[in-house]
Structures are given as C-alpha cells and as structure tokens.
Amino acid sequence: MKGGALECGEVRDLRPGIAAGLKLITLAAILLSGCAARSQDCASPEIWCAGLVTDFGSVTQGINNEAWLALEDAKSGGLLAKIERIETVDSRDRAANIATFGDAGYDIVVTVGASISDETSAAARHYPRTAFIGVEQAQQTEIPNLAGLVFHEEQSGFLAGVLADSVTQTGHVAAVCESSFIDTVRRYCEGFRAGALYGDPSVRVTVSYRQGRSELLFHDPDWAQESALEMLDAGADVLFSAGGETADAALQAAAGGGALVIGAETDTYTRLKDVRPQLLTSAVSGVRAGVGVLVVAARQGKLPPGETFGQVGLAPFHDLESRIPREAEGRLAKIQGMLETREILLEVPYRLP
Predict the structure, then answer these.
(1) pLDDT (tens digit, 9 = 90+) per residue, 143-178?
(2) Dihedral, CA atoms, 213, 152, 284, 118, nearest 10 degrees?
(3) What is the pLDDT of residue 132?
(4) 131 and 103 part of one domain
(5) How far is 193 from 37, CA to CA, in rounded Å?
(6) 237 and 192: one domain?
(7) Domain residues for 70?
(8) Mode of pairing for the β-strands spanning 312-314 and 279-285
(9) From the CB of residue 19, how many other CB atoms can be counted at a distance below 10 Å?
(10) What is the DSSP letter of 145?
C-alpha cells in the first residue's frame, strides 16, 4: 500500500461525518492541486488509482452512485489520478471483478454492498498492499488494509418514525421492507417502528418484511406494491420503505394512493420524480462523505482497519417542507443530537445472533 506523507500537502483531520468529509475533500483539492499524475500506470508507486466494484447493478443509483461520486470528488481534488468501475451483473463474477483491480496494481479498491463482503475480505488478504473500503460491510475480524464503512441505520430510521408520527392524520403509519435478514434493512425498519412509538406510544405501527423468493431480493416490485396498498387500505397514511427496487415500488404505490412517503439510503427525491409530491424526506447515510474521508486516510497510509461509522440523518424536506410542523423540525433536531450523544439508546440490535 502506498502510504506516508502526501507529496504536495497533507490532510490530517479524519473526523467522520458528512460535513467533515466534504471539507476534507475541498481541502485536499487545494493542497494537491498540480499533483496530477503524468501517466496512468497504476502499478507505478507515484500514480494513485482507485477502482469500484458493485455487489450488483450500476453506479447510477443508490449507494453505488454515492460511492462513485466520492471517487470522482477525490479525482477532481487531485487525490487520485485514475478511477474506474466494474458494475457486477452476475454475483459469481464478484471475486474476479475485484481481482481485475488488484492484479493491475490499483491502490484503493472500493466495493459496495453487504453481499460482496466475503469477496472483499478475501481480496484484502490476497492483496495486502492495496487499501480496501467496503461500503455497508460489517467487519467481524480486523484486516489491516480493509475499512468497513458502516452506519447506524436504526438512528435515521428512528428519526423517520418520529417524523411519521408527527404528520399522520389517521394515527396509523407503516413500513414495507426487504427481508429482515438483511441487517441494514432490519435496522432501518425497526428504527422506524421505535421512532414512531417514541413520539406516541398509542400510534399504530405496521412493519412488513418480504419473505418471498431469494432471487427477487431487492427486486420484488409486485410484492412491494401489493403490500403498500394493503397498508393504505388498512388506514396507514404515512409509509416508509427500505430495500432497493423493492422499496421504490412500495413508495410509488403508496404515493400514488395518496399517502405521504419516506425513503431510505439515499435521497429519494433525486431519483423518483413521480413520488416527489408525496415525499416527506428520506433516511440517509453519508456514503459519499464517508468514502471520501477513507480515501484521504488511505492516501496518508492511515486507513483505519475494522469498522468506521459514517453519519446518518434525514434528507431535506424539499417540496413538502411547509407540511412539516415547526415544532416537529425542532424536535427532530433535538432527538438527532440525543441519538448522537447516546442520551437516547435504541433497543435495535446492530447484528442478530
């Protein structure tokens, strides 16, 4: 791994968080301007290259896109000379896709998604001189050159639940979620349940997890649409959903049925235009800033092994800001601070036994 001091400056503040990460990237752009490589040989010690591999799908949406934008930020800031991506189509190709960058001498490999975690760990051991960043990949064992960027999704889900309770007119809020064995999804949705009940213990909260065919994981729009409409028929007027295309379909069905909706992972407003008139906000994780912070650390030879927790929160309210009670906005800000300082402790296990 190419470590040590940066050639044209050094960034030492590695504080986690969305705002801090963006400041670091801006600072790096100033310090490293004029340091761009003159060649593209990624095996060369002075040429810094990064590759990204998705666990499935393209970099145009979701956390895949956020991670790719972080690499673009780092390249435009002079931290990286070259960035490339491989969008996995067949899960059997994940290890080979990672090896493409490892064999080519890339300095940093970013893999995105929990389901590519095993292949990432194996590659980190096989390529000890390469820095690996695993997005949404919990680390059971520390590997010196592997940092897992993870999040307390239960906290942003909790905030979404508090908001849902603040705006419901029927006293019934609901969540349509991918399979509960996906820890990130479970944390989002159980956090939502806890947040709604925190606001009002008498509110009715219905959470439905998908239990269908495994090959439709994250891609089961039929189940999602049917479940969302069942929730609305039962009286729910605010619906939260987490879990890829499955979640998107639930949000679209609920918004089409007149319910207010809350998305997850990334800001739903930027990618689902048809739900904007009913979209309150999204429970989001700071993937872009978190990856940016870890790229800076890798360039300094200070990549932190194990788990690094990124910042979570709610996206802007966008078109429905006027629908959010003033007192609810203040309450959400206070509760977020209490979650960060652990004045509020959630009984949502980070991992299941």
Answers:
(1) 999 999 999 999 999 999 999 999 999 999 999 999
(2) -50
(3) 98
(4) yes
(5) 50
(6) yes
(7) 18-151+287-310
(8) antiparallel
(9) 11
(10) T
CA–chain centroid gap for 9, Å, is: 30
Q: Is residue 183 part of a domain?
A: yes
For 316-348, the pLDDT digits (tens) are 999 999 999 999 999 999 999 999 999 999 999
Tell me, yes or no, whether 280 and 304 share the same domain.
no
Question: Nearest 5°: CA angle at 269, between 268 and 274?
Answer: 100
Which amino acid belongs to residue 105?
A: G
Is residue 54 domain-resident?
yes
204 within 8 A of 237, measured Cβ to Cβ? no
With left for phi above 0 and alpha for psi between -120 and 50, is residue 62 left, alpha or beta? left
What is the CB neighbour count within 10 angstroms for residue 234?
12
pLDDT tens sequence across 63-115: 999 999 999 999 999 999 999 999 999 999 999 999 999 999 999 999 999 99
Identify whether residues 242 and 112 lie together within a single domain: no
Q: 212: domain CATH number?
A: 3.40.50.2300
How many domains does the chain fold into? 2
CA distance 349 to 353: 9
- Rounded to the nearest 10°, the torsion over CA 275, 280, 283, 288 is 70
**pLDDT tens digits for 36-46?**
334 479 999 89
Q: Which of 136, 146, 172, 175 is nearest to 261 (CA)?
A: 175
